[in-house]
Design a protein that fits this description.
Distance between the termini: 21 Å
CATH class: Alpha Beta
CATH architecture: 3-Layer(aba) Sandwich
CATH topology: Rossmann fold
Number of domains: 1
Strand content: 15-25%
Structural class: alpha/beta
CATH superfamily: Flavodoxin domain
Shape: elongated
Largest sheet: 6 strands, mixed
Helix content: 40-55%
């Protein structure tokens, strides 16, 4: 079963995960802007990766534009975020607010930790971080804006295993095994 990885990255974490997935699964990783309707049509499955930027998926508009074609595919979506894994309601809200509901039956979601290196942010993003910290302080909350980088290839193992299971189940050898 052939697949493709289509991703959109802002500061490189999503691109790095896409590269690791590509190497592990031996399938191409394509930036979102290079993904054509023909690529989507040719895929047996798609892995879609997007950074989350201020609560929104960078791929959000692209997902909606291609929803009719994507809802016919087996999808694996990985979201790269600074939100901690124990904040499950927040993570679920990213999906509910950004991913078309028509993907519900053909999609699995994975949340990968990202990174923030303050000195690498654009001037506009640095300002947004500072404003976010200020707003949090007005609400008597703390917003940690210290640098972190938790981008690590070990985070992709669950997604890799799920894709490998899908491909094994779709292989001709699996069909022969089930027929006998």
């Amino acid at each position: 079963m052939n697949g493709f990885i289509i991703y959109r990255s802002r500061y490189g974490a999503t691109r790095q995960y896409a590269a690791w997935l590509s190497a592990e699964l031996q399938i191409p990783a394509i930036p979102q802007e290079q993904a054509t309707p023909e690529i989507i049509a040719d895929a047996g499955f798609l892995i879609l990766g997007s950074s989350i930027y201020i609560g929104k998926l960078l791929m959000r508009k692209w997902l909606k534009q291609h929803a009719a074609q994507l809802q016919k595919k087996r999808l694996f979506i990985f979201l790269v975020t600074a939100t901690k894994k124990d904040k499950r309601d927040k993570l679920r809200s990213y999906v509910q607010q950004n991913v078309p509901a028509c993907f519900e039956d053909n999609c699995r979601y994975y949340f990968f930790p990202g990174k923030i290196i303050y000195d690498q942010l654009s001037l506009a993003d640095k300002l947004k971080v500072r404003i976010g910290k200020w707003i949090a302080s007005l609400r008597n909350k703390q917003l940690d804006i210290s640098d972190f980088n938790d981008v690590n290839p070990s985070h992709i193992s669950g997604l890799v295993n799920d894709v490998q299971l899908l491909c094994a189940a779709a292989s001709p050898a699996a069909d022969l095994h089930h027929a006998g």
